[in-house]
Design goal:
Number of strands: 10
Order of helices and strands: EEEHEHEHEHEHEHEHHHEHHH
Strand content: 5-15%
Shape: globular
Radius of gyration: 19 Å
Distance between the termini: 53 Å
Helix content: 25-40%
């Protein structure tokens, strides 16, 4: 499989990354099957694996650790911190206190001495970025972490973090992991241009829009909703009574017809679209079953013509996200409770 440089780090990663959110109670609870899926991905040439301490409350990291036993040195391993791990209010966020504890927990579950890419899973304006980067810098200098990244950061925070790192002598974030798909294109407005400006790698997640572009959703079928526990937790993104999701359903139908006309699967169309953006390093695929993995691997070498890309823009214009909830982050100033004050 073709490899690409991860920003300006000098690290080469496969043009598809393997996401592990579906491994564990949120998706596939069969550890042996999940290990087989990971091994199949590695044998197909994928060398980048992404997980999080959030996924099934650490179970995903444990499964990934099992799968990488004996193959760790061949893999660029990424995980994340920040989201609430349990009911303890200090077991979340970007504080030094939690980062130091969270990384040790992840290292233990992953069965490794170091993490290649350690990512802050969300931006929180209540957390001083200098505190976060100070703690993360210490982890890099201690050899527990190689590189730093963030996920779903707004453009202003991406810029602020770069300046904080420069002015305070901290290690800088070198990767952004945003949601990006044909149905979720808001990152095209500012995020992708900022990552290019700072030479950052981009590893978008959910190129199938949480399953909307998997072929599961059609106007002429009984749409029973998501199959995984992880997706069922996101009611506002799948509730078909909402007009935003009706728009997604219409777009998915039109995109499926376009894929048929182009002689490829809808899955291939969706993944190839994300992969072809010049700012993108490698989309992260997130299979729950071996069949899902095989279908997504088949998209690795698909190239879209300019005509097909123009047709996609007609269905979902550049920079548009059909359901804003899919952007995953909303400025606190725009949340309903803030507007009432």
């Amino acid at each position: 499989m073709e490899h690409r440089l991860l920003g300006r780090t000098g690290v080469s990663v496969s043009k598809l990354g393997l996401g592990a959110m579906m491994f564990g109670a949120w998706g596939n609870g069969d550890h042996d099957e999940c290990v087989k899926i990971i091994h199949r991905a590695l044998d197909a040439g994928i060398n980048f694996v992404d997980t999080s301490d959030l996924y099934s409350q650490g179970e995903s990291e444990t499964i990934v650790g099992k799968a990488l036993a004996g193959r760790r040195e061949d893999v660029v391993l990424a995980t994340k911190f920040f989201m609430p791990f349990d009911d303890d209010p200090n077991h979340c966020g970007g504080s030094r206190r939690w980062i130091v504890q969270a990384v040790e927990n992840s290292l233990r579950r992953l069965g490794t001495d170091y993490i290649d890419l350690y990512q802050m899973q969300r931006y929180d304006p209540a957390v001083d970025l200098d505190e976060t980067l100070g703690a993360l810098t210490d982890l890099v200098r201690a050899g527990k972490v190689r590189y730093l990244g963030h996920s779903t950061f707004p453009a202003s925070a991406i810029v602020e973090a770069q300046y904080v790192a420069r002015d305070r002598g901290r290690e800088r974030f070198v990767v952004e992991q945003p949601p990006y798909s044909i149905l979720t294109r808001a990152v095209e407005n500012e995020i992708l241009s900022q990552t290019q400006r700072y030479g950052m790698g981009v590893i978008p997640y959910s190129p199938l829009a949480g399953g909307w572009l998997s072929g599961r959703y059609h106007r002429d079928t009984d749409n029973i909703g998501p199959a995984s526990v992880a997706r069922k937790r996101l009611a506002d993104r799948f509730d078909l009574s909402l007009p935003e999701n009706q728009r997604k359903l219409d777009a998915a139908d039109r995109l499926a017809r376009l894929a048929d006309e182009a002689g490829i699967s809808l899955v291939a169309l969706a993944i190839a679209f994300v992969r072809c953006h010049p700012a993108v390093t490698a989309p992260i695929i997130g299979p729950r079953t071996m069949a899902h993995l095989e279908a997504q691997l088949a998209a690795a070498d698909v190239t879209l013509t300019d005509d097909v890309l123009d047709r996609i823009d007609e269905i979902v214009p550049p920079g548009i996200t059909l359901n804003p909830a899919d952007n995953e982050w909303t400025s606190p100033s725009l949340r309903p409770d803030a507007r009432r004050r």
